[in-house]
Design goal:
This protein is an alpha+beta fold. It folds into 3 domains: about 110 residues, Trigger factor ribosome-binding domain (Alpha-Beta Plaits), CATH 3.30.70; about 140 residues, no CATH class; about 100 residues, Chitinase A, domain 3 (Roll). Helices cover about 45% and strands about 20% of the residues. The chain contains 12 helices and 13 strands. The strands form 4 sheets. Strands 7, 8, 9, 10 and 11 form a 5-stranded antiparallel β-sheet that branches. Strands 1-2-4-3 form a 4-stranded antiparallel β-sheet. It has a two-stranded antiparallel sheet with strand order 5-12. A hairpin with a 2-residue loop joins β1 and β2.
């Protein structure tokens, strides 16, 4: 194989590759020997079919397969030997090819730019820790108790009101006819939550223990019997029990219901949970500071093909007119994203950072846990979409690089109160919102707060606009 680098226009290069027909014929010979033992033709013993017969029947297919393999192998080798890292898929232009002929083709490729990676030890960022007062922990536990009430039976003459738990049996009909699954036993509804059928529990307001009540409701779109969807059903409800809510007593028994050893242990767990909620959001601010520092690194040139690809992503679902109007802005955003992505990738390569299959699968499991009840759907999505799995790998790769930078950089450690944390997050949200007016059009993205490790708790989310833009993933490692 002979490779000649022809024109060099910035990052764009053309490589002429020449492979003589003797070498090509040797590849063909190898392929014919390979298929000879597997081809079965009438009148010939296995492995004894003459070359000319094979050529006559399979020549075109054999040459096509050999050509594909040679192009793939020699393109990779030509780029490696000339130390060219392609920014995107190279384009091949066949000049001469065919059976018993030389192979000559041109590789047109855009090269990744030279990147000057400064010492990441000099990167500065704020590393926040949040001090949670005991009063905040007590307040959260009271909220949990309020949302997890106990219920006590009421007298038979007491009418059900909003917030009460009503237990009843029912049988239902549509057009006076019963249907499959039309009966329910010991059905429990907390009045006012409207969790059964729309408007159902409001009709139970005022009922008493032992009464019967006809409730009418429209069967929903997801009702199993499709021919009954959107039809009005009558539910004959027999009320067996009515219970009033009673706020749970906060004690050791209450704590044990949430997996804690005692109330003291629950307070420690809740305090950590609140701290983690703020810490996770503040970590995004630290990450943004690191990315701002990385933007100062020098990149010789941004590949035009990567800019165009990123602009397509930024302008998704926009009209041609709006895309054209925002073209300059999109270019600026695209260049910034690509530059940061290229620098992160360079840091990753220099530090030999890789993503193992175990790490990738752990991230898949993390995504599954974030969507309870839809585990199979999420798993199927990643199994059937290699591009989604590749994107997830890029996310893990990026996080590993940022973790390395944090370990080697210079953190400015700050211990702050919960009020100070909220103030910082609010300011960040306002700045980001202001920045959006000059940025590309995109939906608001919220910082996800880590789910509680305390079962049954419903922590308040810290809703702050994401301070980190999605980086272009330039590595599939």
């Amino acid at each position: 194989m002979k490779v000649t680098v022809e024109n060099k226009k910035g990052l764009n290069k053309n490589l002429k590759v020449f492979i003589d027909k003797k070498t090509m014929n040797s590849y063909m010979d190898q392929k014919y020997e390979e298929i000879k033992g597997t081809v079965k033709l009438k009148g010939f013993r296995p492995g004894k079919v003459p070359r000319e017969i094979l050529k006559r029947q399979f020549g075109k297919a054999v040459f096509s397969e050999v050509l594909d393999k040679v192009l793939k192998d020699t393109t990779t080798k030509a780029l490696e030997e000339n130390r060219i890292k392609p920014a995107g898929q190279p384009k091949l232009d066949l000049k001469t090819y065919g059976e018993d002929k030389d192979l000559e083709y041109i590789i047109s490729v855009t090269e990744l730019p030279k990147i000057e990676v400064k010492s990441i030890e000099n990167i500065k960022f704020d590393d926040y820790s949040v001090k949670i007062d005991d009063s905040e922990t007590d307040k959260r536990i009271k909220e949990i108790a309020k949302n997890q009430p106990n219920f006590k039976d009421v007298a038979s003459d007491v009418k059900a009101k909003e917030g009460d738990l009503v237990i009843f049996d029912y049988s239902a009909t549509v057009d006076e006819k019963p249907f499959k699954g039309n009966e329910g036993k010991n059905t429990q509804l907390t009045l006012g939550k409207d969790l059964f059928l729309k408007g159902f529990d409001k009709q139970l307001l005022g009922v008493k223990k032992g009464e019967q009540k006809i409730v009418e409701a429209i069967l929903p779109e997801n009702f199993p019997e499709k021919d009954l969807v959107n039809k009005k059903a009558k539910f004959n409800c027999k009320i067996s029990t009515i219970k009033n809510p009673e706020e749970a007593k906060i004690n050791d028994d209450f704590a044990k219901n949430f997996g804690a050893k005692d109330l003291k242990d629950l307070k420690l767990l809740i305090s950590k949970q609140i701290n983690d909620e703020y810490k996770n959001s503040l970590n995004h601010l630290s990450k943004n500071q690191i990315l701002k520092e990385i933007e100062k690194f020098k990149v010789s040139e941004i590949p035009e093909n990567l800019i165009e690809e990123e602009i397509k992503i930024l302008s998704q679902n926009m009209s041609d007119e709006d895309t054209k109007k925002n073209r300059k802005n999109f270019e600026d955003v695209a260049k910034k994203r690509i530059k940061v992505g290229l620098i992160l990738n360079e840091i990753g390569e220099k530090n030999q950072i890789k993503v193992t299959e175990q790490e990738l699968q752990a991230e898949v499991q993390k995504q599954i846990r974030m969507m309870p009840g839809q585990e199979k759907m999420v798993m199927d999505f990643y199994q059937k979409n290699p591009s989604a799995l590749s994107s997830l790998r890029g996310t893990v790769y990026e996080e590993k690089i940022l973790k390395l930078i944090k370990e080697k950089a210079k953190p400015n450690k700050k211990e702050i109160s919960k009020d100070e944390a909220e103030k910082i997050l609010k300011q960040s949200q306002m700045q980001e919102h202001s920045h959006d007016h000059n940025d590309e059009k995109k939906p608001e993205k919220k910082v996800e707060v880590k789910k509680s490790s305390i079962k049954k708790t419903k922590p308040k989310s810290i809703k702050a606009k994401s301070v980190v833009k999605k980086l272009k993933k330039v590595s599939k490692k």
